[in-house]
Structures are given as C-alpha cells and as structure tokens.
Hints:
Elements: H1 3-17, H2 29-35, E1 54-58, E2 64-69, E3 75-82, E4 86-93, E5 103-109, E6 122-124, E7 134-139, E8 142-150, E9 157-166, H3 190-200, E10 206-212, H4 222-236, E11 247-254, E12 258-264, E13 271-277, E14 282-288, E15 293-296, H5 308-316, E16 323-332, H6 336-339, H7 345-354, E17 362-371, E18 376-382, E19 388-396, E20 399-405
Parallel strand pairs: 1-3
Antiparallel strand pairs: 2-9, 2-10, 3-8, 4-7, 4-9, 5-6, 5-8, 10-11, 11-12, 12-13, 13-14, 14-15, 16-17, 17-18, 18-19, 19-20
Helix pairs in contact: 1-2
Amino acid sequence: MTRRQRGIAFIITALFSFGWTGCGSAPDADAMAKEGAEDDTPLDGKFDSFTKPTDNGAFNFGAKTASRISDDERYQAWSFRLTDAAKVELRTDAAGTAPSLDTVLYLYRRPHGATSWGKYIAKNDDYGGKVWSRLAGEFDKGEYRLIIKGRKKALRGDFALEGSCDGLGCAPAPTCGAEPELVPTGRYSRACGHALRQVVTTPPQIKQTAVVTKATACNQGNVVARAVRRYDSMMRDFYTLPDNVEYTAELSVHGHWGSIVRVSLDGEDNDVSFVFDAQDRPVMQYSHDQDPVAEWYCPSGAGTEPELRCVSAAMSLVSSSWQKKSVTGTTTFANLGSGLPSFTKAAVQDFEDSIYPGGDAYTEWQIDEWSTGWGEAATLTLRTIPTVSYDLLRTAPEVTWLVFRSQDFEASLNCD
Length: 416
C-alpha cells in the first residue's frame, strides 16, 4: 500500500470509528483506497443535502423500489417519518439484470423546528465487499431523508432500493383491498377530457418505480394498488401466471391535478397506463402495444369514446418534463393565421371555425413549448373573453395534432 493509500484508509477508518455505531458496517478501507476518492461529496451546512435532488416522495418500507442515476437525475431522494423509536434498515441492490452500480447512501434527520435537512447523520458506500450500500440501526422519532448517488459523477445506471422498519415508530401497513376495483364504463365525458388534459399537460413532480406483486402493491399507495390489481386481472385473461408474479409499477404525480400509473410485466410488450384525477378517481386506461386500446372510466350516461389516435396523442404528452420557451405577441383576429407560427394552424382553424368573433379587434397570444418523448408539444393561449387555450403535439415538422381545446374537451379530442 502506498503512503497516499494508507492516508486515505486512515481517514476512512476514522470516519467509521466516530459516530457510526449501529448504522451499517464500515467498508473495506483498502478497497476504497483503490477506488479513489468519492466524487461530489456534500459540504457542511446548507449545501450538505446536494443541489435539488430528485424528490421521489415517501419511501415505502417492505417494497422493492427501482430507480436510476441519469444525466438529469444524479441524486435520488426519499423521505420517511418515525412517530417513535424504530429499527430501520436501508440498502441498495441490483435492479433486475442491470449491471452493478457503485452507489453511496446518505441519511439525514431534520432538526426539530428546522426547514432544511442540515448535515447528514450517516453514510455508507460499499457494504459486504460489494458496490452496494447499506445503513441499519435504531433511530429516534423524527423526519428522515435518504439520498442515493453514484460514487463517481460519471456513473449512470439502474439500482433497486429496499428497506425494513420494525418498532413503534413505523407507519402501519396499509389495508389492502379496501378500495373498489377498477371497472371501465366505456363512456366518455367532458369532465373526463378535462381531467386527462390537466394531468398529461402538467410535468410530473414526483416519479417512482417499484417492483411489486398483487399482494405487496398496497405498500405503494392507493392508486398503484388499484392499477396493479386491474392489470393483474387483465394479464390472467391471456397468461397463466403464478400467484406471486412480479410487475413493474411506475408512478408519476402531476402536480395537484392527478397521477398516472404505468404497469408492465417483464419480457412482455403489454404496458398499460392508468390515469387518475386529483381525487384519485380513475379517468382512463391506455394500453401501449402495437394495437393501442383506450378504455374510459367516466360515469354511466356520458358520451361515447373519442377517436383512439387522439388519445394516443394525448398520452404521448405525458413525457413532458420541462418548459422549453415561451413567446408572446399581439395580432388582430383577422390576421391571426398569419401572425402565429405555422404549426399552430390546426388550432387557428378550429378557433376561426368555432369561436372566431370577427372584426379588427386585437388579441394577445402566448405559446409555451416543451420537449416530449414523441417530439415537440405546445400550448397556444388566446386571451379572448373567455380565454381559449389549445394543446398541440408536433410529431414531425409537417404533422401537428390538436389534442385539446380548453372550452370543449369532448370536441377537442378530434386531432384532425
């Protein structure tokens, strides 16, 4: 061992000798010295919890949560609350067949009355001679946050997070099966269109992925449990599956408007997305296969389903993640078509056919554009009385679909 390696080993050993009792085993110092120093270590004080980690919401003990370190999301964060003392274990592991990822796990406890997390209270890099991380011990009542990052800032890849909680301070296990089953009505309504529009055009603020069975899906919350039970029933109509078959459930929470749960069976091209409104009421389910199928959950007595390809356009807006740019202007109603970008043609035509007041009055307009997985999306807002807005999806320079019109969500699902 070189003098530099011995120095690093001494520092690491000292860190684990003071303040680490009961919080996991110290990694092999020689192995860490060979790996080199960790990149992007936190600083004391207000910067200690890194810069804007991806907030995955509440951590679900007893479930296996899949996550990823990517260019845009290098620090993954979860939180949990203990109402009394409890024994807690947190550990990272491989995500399916994905290659091993050298993770580092940090744990924070919010000081009483504080608004920030402060300095981390425990940390683990390599555990048990492997690149995975583990923290375990008895913790007092309080609010906690865990952050997982790659040991080196260039590392990218998938990992799984698991944990257990034992004691009076642990949250009670949710009651599974108490919620009503999801049963599509096959009917469409304007209220459903409004709910769908609000969800798919709002970038997701929380995203989390879990590997669950029908029995353990309750650990992920109400909407995930209901979506997984419905998906399990659908899959058993086509496949013979074991009772404990595992599904991947991806939850995205879109502001206060609602959520989407995408459920899949490993190795099969049969993903299904379930859309829920702000009150966790089902809106629709959409099958992402070669022959997409949309089924609605609107109350009985509503209208018939809209054209399928329009729903496909709406669902492709789900991947919107950031606003790209915003442009404003003023023009007369008579010159509206020539005063706006060409890709808004479908919206302008609809406005002229359905709402156009005529005359030489002026209107203010605004275009917000953002990137999606399918191309470019935009919202065109015309500040008339009342204000009218259109959501557009541009899948190619010459192809723009009119997905929604704010004043009439039923008619606006006509993408032509």
